[in-house]
Amino acid sequence: MTFFSKKNLSGDILGGVTAGIMTLPAALAYGLTTGLGATAGIVTAIILGLLATLFGGTNTQISSPIGSMTVVVAFIVTQEVTIQNGSLEQAMPVLIMIFLLTGLFQMLLGIFKLGWNIKYVPFSVISGFMSGIGIIIIVLQVKDITGVYDSGFKSVPDIIMHIGYFLKNIHGNTLILATASLVIIYAFPLLNKRIPGSLVALIVVTAASYFLDMDVKRLGNIELVLPKFDMAFGALLQDSGTILRIVFAAFSLAILGSINTLLASVVADKLTATEHNSNKELIGQGLGNLVAGIFGGFPGGGAAAFTVANIKSGGRNRLSGLISTALLLLVMLFGKEVAALIPQAVLAGILTYVGIALIDKQTLRKMKVIPRSDNIVMLTVLVLTVCWNLLYAVLTGLVIASFYFMKRMADVVETDTEKTKIDSLVEQVVNTMEPDQNLREKICIKTIRGPVFFGFSSRFLTSMRNLSDQYEAVIFDLSMVPYMDYSGVKTFIEVIQFLNEKKVNVCFSGLSEVNLTLLQGIEIIPKMVDSNHIFDSVEECIMWLHVPGHLKNVFEDQDKLYLPPAFTPNGDGINDDWSIANIKRYPAAEIAIYDTREKLVFESKGYDKPWNGTLDGELLPVGEYRYKLQLNNGTDELMEGSVYLFR
User: Fold this and answer.
1) 209: left (phi over 0), alpha (psi -120 to 50) or beta
2) Could you tell me which of 516, 510, 506 has the C-alpha nearest to residue 537?
């Protein structure tokens, strides 16, 4: 937790001042929008901002009333006032309970460490959300930029659809002030990058409008009056309908506020190259909302726009958030008269700049090279954020992104064409077998890469049902399967039943301990696949299937001498030496092994210690070696052949 650093002290001060100045008008406006009054908005900004800064998990986060939460709070306030026959005072006990529970729910989300889930939100969703918030902020400034306040168009879609009305009725002085503010914000950094252009614009344009006596709409007087109400909470607990209404409203606000806050934290991470603590952030936000509700405020959250303004102005530590809160408190206590002179057009210019900064222009410029699925998710979230609902926009984006992810996983989880190191080793093993055995045409190796889940199941089943009749055995290589869900296991049951009906031998290789336990628990092993058919590696399984009788699953002539055509002395415990089956039946047997230049590399009588692929303690190179085996069993029988060594 970093509160300040001497190296960035000036940046934190400027960032805090800028954020505080921008938060003030928004907090007042949001308070009025909820129907609870401007004071409720500033109380929320001060208390939530202070506690979230002290106890939250994002160093640069600026917390205050936010647009999405304000809309929901306004709906809840209207609903409760209507239920109480138009009396805000009588509705206050229910509203306070909702606000307190909102904070409590957020704290519980953090305590139970659910905040980390924000890491699983795809960037396409975050990008669409950022750009959507930016557009909303810009559109909502239209009335303050044009000076048209009597249009009656308040929602973003309505303002966009009726933009012509605003353009036809532009108020000249208001447009001049808003334009001048934007020009200063963008031009001043060319002269001095340490002082934020938004702060300069606020001071210069406000002073100019005052001394030139320009007729424009200003913030006006701010009254610090806390609402009065009867805290009759006992009666609330006697009505189950009221309790359900309170819990549902609080939970909805908590979820919406948490998503907004954590997305704002991700935005802050992106701009500062840091990593926030999601769970700690939710605890801090929840505590702030809970205390704000006690003192007449309403739930807010991390404000992406003000957080960006803080960072863009130099804020990097918690000191910036404390300064922002302190500035709000000072202005409300001692600077109400000065704040009342600020033209709303200036604030509109500042917020327009913030909105433009929030739009993810880098991603929008790269849409031609970004995968189409990511573009669809991003644009869907953007449009729904602007035209519908922020919470539903994010949830919809997550659902669409999840479906695309499952489809991509299903596309790549079973791959027959891509060659891996394992495939190369298997090719080497098969190449050592005698050509007349045609193992390459008799054994099908299905290497599955990725999780075996429900999105993979149907396609896998279809591919196995189209298996060629020439195969006598199928090896399922699961060495790259991290986990299997029940749908995937059920598919394996259907596949194995189908293969059993075709008299095809089924083997598993590379099963992790977890997956092996699962298959045993479902009783695929040993009821459907014998335990002898479970191998640590594909090459080991190939060598086992090469043993006479194993391919057809006929276990006869078990005493027959068998010389493996290959082995892998790589120290993994699997085929580390050239083990000749049943050689102990010939204790007088003599064996000699030569390299391609007929150099003797190994000899033994009785073969009590198998060849391990070394000569004088040195590893021998991979390749083909010739052997001569004299059984010395009363005959002159001499067996000759080759064995392939590879690692």
Assistant:
1) alpha
2) 510
Answer whether residue 419 shows pLDDT above 50: no
**Tokens 């080497």 belong to residue:** 428
Element at 521 (helix H, strand E): helix 513-521
* CA atoms of 438 and 430, how far apart (whole Å): 9
Residues 200 and 218: their CA atoms lie apart, in Å, by 18
> Is the distance from CB of 584 to CB of 577 less than 8 angstroms?
no
Q: Where are the alpha helices (DSSP H) in 276-420?
A: 278-294, 304-312, 318-334, 336-339, 344-358, 361-365, 372-387, 390-412
Instruction: Decide: helix, strand or coil at residue 484.
Output: strand
- CB distance 249 to 98 below 8 Å: yes
Q: Rounded to the nearest 5°, which phi and psi values hold at 480?
A: -110, 25
What is the pLDDT confidence band of residue 421, given thresholds at 50, 70 and 90? very low
Residue 416 has pLDDT above 50, yes or no: no
**Positive or negative, the Cα torsion across 517, 523, 528, 531?**
positive
Cβ–Cβ under 8 Å, residues 62 and 24: no
Dig out the tokens for 149 from the structure: 């306040």
Determine contact, residues 184/200, Cβ cutoff 8 Å.
Answer: yes
The predicted-structure confidence for 439-485, as pLDDT tens digits, reads as follows 667 888 888 887 887 666 667 777 788 888 888 888 898 888 888 88
N-to-C CA span, the chain: 51
CB count in 10 Å sphere of residue 252: 16
Per-residue pLDDT reduced to its tens digit, 69-118: 887 788 889 888 988 888 888 888 899 999 999 999 999 999 998 877 76
How much is the pLDDT for 65?
92
- For CA atoms 575, 579, 580, 584, the dihedral sign is negative
Question: Mapping DSSP to helix (H, G, I), strand (E, B) and coil, where does residue 493 land?
Answer: helix
Chain centre distance of CA 394: 12
Peptide bond into 196 cis (omega under 30): no
Query: CA–CA separation, 47 vs 296, rounded Å?
Result: 10
Other C-beta atoms closer than 10 Å to the C-beta of 499 total 21
Contact 225, 246 (CB under 8 A): no
Residue 417's pLDDT band, with cuts at 50, 70 and 90, is: very low
